[in-house]
Amino acid sequence: MSNSLEINQVDELYFPNIIPDEELVIQQNNYENIVNQFKNNNLETWKKLALENLIWEKPFTRVLDDSNAPFYKWFDDGELSISYNCIDKHLKHNSNKVAFISVDNEGLSTEINYKELHSKVCQLANGLLSLGLKKGDRAIIYLSHSVETIIAMHACIRIGVIHSVVFAGFSAQALSDRIKDIDSSVIITANGQKRGDKTIITKNIVDEALAILNNEHNNKKVIVLNKIEIQINMNKFIDIWWHDLTMNMDNRIEPIVTESEHPLFVLYTSGSTGKPKGVVHSSAGYLLGVIHSLKLAFAVKDDDIFWCTADTGWITGHSYSCYGPLSLGITQVIYEGIPTYPNHSIYWDIIQKYKVTVIYTAPTVVRLHIKLDSQLPRNYDLSSLRLIAICGEPINPDAWKWLYSVVGNNCCSVLDTWWQTETGSVIITPISNVTKLKAGSCTFAIPGIDIGVINDYGELLNNQTKGYLVIKNPFPSQIRNIWQDSSRFLKTYFIKQSTGEFYYLTGDSSIIDKDGYCWIVGRTDDVLNVSAHRLGSVEIESVVAIHSNVAECAIVGVPDEIKGQAIFLFVVCKENILDTNQENQNIMKNEIIQLVAKKIGPIAKPDYIKFCENLPKTRSGKIVRRLLKDIACGVEINQDISTLEDQSVISILRNN
Ligand code: PRX
Questions:
Q1: Contact assessment for residue 442 and residue 428, using Cβ atoms and an 8 Å cutoff
Q2: Could you tell me if 359 and 309 are in contact, meaning their C-beta atoms sit under 8 angstroms apart?
């Protein structure tokens, strides 16, 4: 890895000082206190936070068990209910407080308060029990982003069932892979969903996924939410309507109490090999990390109207819609639709109408809005906003400044928050009203977390040198394992130092600048980040390779104005297609695109396909992706190509 400082340093420091001085002093003191407490005694401080922020059925006596590092256990002899911590604890004083303002695809809204949420969760939990589900069983949730998805997630955890939400844009094949890997007893889905002007018949995708599994899905049940007006097939041995299952169910059930380390959920994410990884999260540690970030970095208040735009199919929707904000008892907006339907102003309408105070979104959404109409927000009253947060991919300073000035009217903190499915909660982030901001930097590690940058030999680097971003100490919300694959967990994520400590490898490269600000450069592995969604290049390549005329192929990410990265596919065909007419090439391109959409989902469709005779390879036969990336981006190749088996490949590819 080159070790030069390649970032554009931005000198401006933004510090929206709009809150009253007394409040600011309290926040700054609070921040300094907590930094000092962590510095003095990291574990003692996590202990204090765990006691303050979680309600324990049986308090823990041990904070961290690192005897089998890096299989860490936090608060492991304690017991609690996450469902209680997110819902029941609000029933005494806040039962009528709105939990969700739900805005559907057409822009129509309904509200559900904490009491109603509790009832619906309990009814579904009782329904799941009636199907024979018990603690430790798994449920797949294949639903679009909606309150029902949150209800399903909480119904599972209320009885100790481990949920795994699969993004509803994934294909039948991707869904069946996950059902198989996690061996789920039920699949909770809907008959269909509307997304913009499209209607998706979700239940058909589930049927197809089960058909792929053949007999392996014996005894699985499918719970179907009647979400839209369409006809679907119901198999009386497998399928059951959500409303039939819950109709006569009691709207109360005591939440199960579990040990702190009981897996709360598994969420699949892409890695550098073909098979997605089932990231296992714990109960207590996970929730504590999320609460800590919301209280400290977002400075969440009781009267906030919090809108996380991320789909529940991804980690952001888990941590900052389903779990964190509920545990703090605040009101959230949940919007099922897309940013461009019914028109381009839907986001600004929502903020204005529901007086959203905090929006948590992704840079890809920001870039889309800039492109659609960068001045549109100025026509709306967005003065309710106090905080704008983003995550999921690097943001370019121009987009950052647009958020700050046009959306935030120069008086909102902009939090560029860095984290991952594996970290469970925000790790590197400014602290609202406290941290001086630099456009494009996610600033500093949240108190309690110690980050560093290492080189190829695992040695810590000084500031201003690019290297691999690592987290140096264990922290409560970190990944506990990969479902059924402990050796991959160890191999992928940890590097042991001579001191015996394990550093967590993030897979990202970064630079810490002279002032200590962290700048994320991008992934160091073969993971693409398309519209803030992680996709493994190997995962897509293995699907393309199924095509009967594909001899070999390689995927690289290229910069894209809206999506952050676009997918560029190089294909070497078995039968030479380059000499044939354009029509043949187009047919094959189309077949490849359809194949990827079918096997993974539309999000993974290649944006560009280039047919070629050969790929650049080392003498040991390894495809050199960094060269393909330069070719795809059309930039000058200044890299060493002497290690290539056949150097002429490069000029042929360039001229082609
Ligand atoms: O490369 C980093 C990028 O997204 C990756 C994690 O993706 P995922 O597990 O899907 O979680 C996304 C939501 C947290 C990281 O390895 N990433 C995340 N946040 C940022 C980021 N890149 C730059 N800046 C960020 N703020």
A1: yes
A2: yes
Measured from the CA of 416, which atom of ligand 1 is nearest? 26
Which residue's CA is minimally distant from atom 2 of ligand 1?
A: 393
What span, in angstroms and rounded, lies between the C-alpha atoms of 428 and 517?
10
Measured CA to CA, the distance from residue 270 to residue 530 in angstroms comes to 12
Q: Note if the bond before 430 is cis, omega within 30 degrees.
A: no
For the stretch 101-119, pLDDT in tens is: 999 999 999 999 999 999 9
Domains and CATH numbers, the chain: 115-256 (3.40.50.980), 453-519 (2.30.38.10), 526-655 (3.30.300.30)
Which residue has a Cα nearest atom 15 of ligand 1? 420
User: Ligand 1 within 6 A of 318 CB?
Assistant: no
Q: What is the DSSP letter of 412?
A: S
316 in contact with ligand 1, CB cutoff 6 A: yes
Q: Are 585 and 612 in contact (CB under 8 A)?
A: no
Residue 420 in contact with ligand 1 by CB distance below 6 A:
yes
**Residue 598: left (phi > 0), alpha (psi -120 to 50), or beta?**
alpha
CA separation for the pair 620, 226 (Å, rounded): 55
List pLDDT tens digits, range 165-215: 999 999 999 999 999 999 999 999 999 999 999 999 999 999 999 999 987
Q: State the DSSP H helix or E strand holding residue 625, giving kind and residue range, or none if neither.
A: helix 625-633
d(CA 174, CA 400): 34
Identify residue 111 by its one-letter amino acid code: E
What DSSP state is assigned to residue 90?
G
Ligand 1 pocket: which of 420, 506, 509 to mutate (most atoms within 8 A of CB): 420
Q: Find the radius of gyration of the CA atoms of the chain.
A: 25
253 burial via Cβ count (<10 Å: 0-12, 13-18, 19+): buried
Token duo for residue 616: 């650049």
pLDDT per position as a tens digit, 35-88: 999 999 999 999 999 999 999 999 999 999 999 999 999 999 999 999 999 999
Tokens of 246: 């819950």
- DSSP alpha helices (H): ranges in 233-272? 242-246
List, in sequence order, the alpha helices (H) in 423-536.
Answer: 486-493
Structure tokens given for 247: 């109709």
CA of 526 to the centre of ligand 1 (A): 14
Tokens of 79: 């017991």
Write phi, then psi, for 113 (nearest 5 degrees). -95, 175
Q: What is the pTM of this model?
A: 0.92
**CA separation, residue 218 to residues 180, 310, 318, 335, 344 (Å):** 12, 34, 29, 35, 46
Would you say 95 and 119 are in contact if contact means Cβ atoms under 8 Å apart? no
Q: 503 pairs with which residues across the strands? A: 495
Nearest residue to 221 via CA among 211, 204, 236 = 236
